[in-house]
Design brief:
Radius of gyration: 16 Å
Distance between the termini: 17 Å
Number of helices: 2
Order of helices and strands: HHEEE
Helix content: 25-40%
Strand content: 5-15%
Strand order of the largest sheet: 1-2-3
Largest sheet: 3 strands, antiparallel
Length: 84
């Protein structure tokens, strides 16, 4: 756990925020899809913004102590990252 929170809970708010951007088509964090180049290389199946797809289903993220399933917050594969 980092800062007393399970990884799935720490990432829940940013994922929900990203999915709100996907629904509205406006990325307030990084302005994805705001340039012609972004639109050219975007995914035509993503509407209304070609550069923002929703984050759904089982999501996985590397956490300092291993790979985590965000839905279940179970460690699947411990990793060693050294001492910082």
């Amino acid at each position: 756990m980092a800062c007393g929170h399970a990884p799935g809970q720490v990432l829940k708010a940013p994922i929900e925020r990203h999915n709100q951007f996907e629904a509205t088509g406006v990325d307030l964090n990084f302005a994805k899809g705001s340039t012609q180049l972004n639109q050219y290389i975007g995914d035509l199946s993503n509407k209304p913004n070609l550069c923002i797809g929703s984050l759904t289903g089982k999501l996985y993220a590397l956490w300092p102590f291993g790979l985590q399933n965000l839905e279940l917050a179970q460690a699947l594969k411990p990793i060693s990252i050294g001492v910082f």
